Amino acid sequence: MNENLTLETPFVSSLYSTHPFYILEKNSAASFFEPVVSVHRQGVLGLEALGRAVDPENLGLVDPQDLFRNMEEEDFYLKLGLDRLFRQKGLESFTAFQSRKPRLLLFLDIEPSILEENIVGSGYLIKQIEDYRVDPRRVVMQIPLSAKWDQAQVERFIRIHRRHQLLVCLKDIHAGPSRMKALLELNPDLIKLAGDLVRGLARSGEKKADFRKVVKLAHSLGVVVLAGNLDNEEDALAALESGADLLQGSYFSKNHRESPVLTLGRKARMLFLSERFRRRLSRRAQRNRDLRFRCGKTADYLSGYFSRNPAQGLSEAASSLFRQVPALECLYRLDPQGIQVGEAALNQYHIPGRTRFLFEPSAPGSDHSLREYYYALARGLDRFLTDPYLSMNSGHLCVTAAKCFDNPSGGGFHILCADLNLSKV
């Protein structure tokens, strides 16, 4: 039966024509696979098993979620049997791939609503894996958080199966508080981002911000980030730029015969995507180098100015320097302990009137010893350029160029700090 089926076969409506019990009784299910790719390694890291019920009447495919969505509490054991059937079909079909490529990972969905106290410790999943002689270290349990689930039982399920070295992936993760909390508390090995967050990523600044928020938390915990549901190159490229480690979706799994643009095979598409990503990284690195070079030249000019005019104070030099260096927003000096010496010179031209009292220059005697640039200079560097940050002196995105030179009043060195407006450097 299965050789006549493809994933392009239309799904049966959620109001299925055949009762799920009949599907279970006839073992009428099939498993298809979607590759999980690593662009950095330029290869397929694993396969996600996509279980489908097969309607015995018309061979239509039914997504398991369409079956489960309509089941009541009294259908619990029917749902449990179907979930185990889909896993069995996935493991059965995967053995052929594992014999050829033993390092492939198998991503298997676990329906979280079946994880009740009397089921969690049954050992059924481990027995299935052993029966098909699949290496448990190569199995990734995918637990969707969009379905009904009991966190205590999910935690227990994860704990039990980690003893057998299975990996854990939380699906449908987004930047909402409940999903971020689950990421923190369940400590998975991987997460798969929700489709709504990934689709249209390239065109949405809000989605990119949420995507990076999740990636930042996941990477801080050592969790691998998988972006699925990718159906075009631009979203795949945006996912890579936003920090995704692994990619998945129809862009990598379908032949796209109907599209003259996507006639390349999966390997060629992956290589093409990696080349575009490499070019973007190269351009970004070049822009960063150019920016640092310009900021460094500006810092050299400012310190050279005061070296040539050691007796001149900041306030006396400021008006001239602000005209000569349009990116310069604020100048101030620190003593060897990081304490501000005298008034900071602020270019008032840069500050909008409505925020003039929200962003004000630091006062004489302010302690800057907790600043990154102070620590770098105090430990022996003679100059330092910070990463971009929001300046509380002006309210703009700035970098601070800091440099040590001799105190014109004597008493060792002091530090000249210049805040530079990034949009004008």
Short précis:
With 425 residues, the chain is α/β, with parallel strands linked by helices.
State the distance separating the first and last CA atoms. 66 Å
Q: CATH H-level name of the largest domain... which superfamily?
A: EAL domain
Write down the CATH topology of the largest domain: TIM Barrel
The largest beta-sheet arranges its strands as: 1-2-4-5-6-7-8-9
**Helical residues, percent:** 25-40%
Query: How many helices does DSSP assign?
Result: 14
Structural class computed from helices and strand pairing? alpha/beta
How many distinct beta strands?
A: 15
Q: Kindly provide the name of the CATH class of the largest domain.
A: Alpha Beta
Low-confidence stretches: 1-15, 256-264
Kindly report the average pLDDT value: 83
Helix-strand pattern, N to C? HEEEHHEHHEHEHEHHEHEHHHEEHEEEE
* Proportion of beta-strand residues: 15-25%
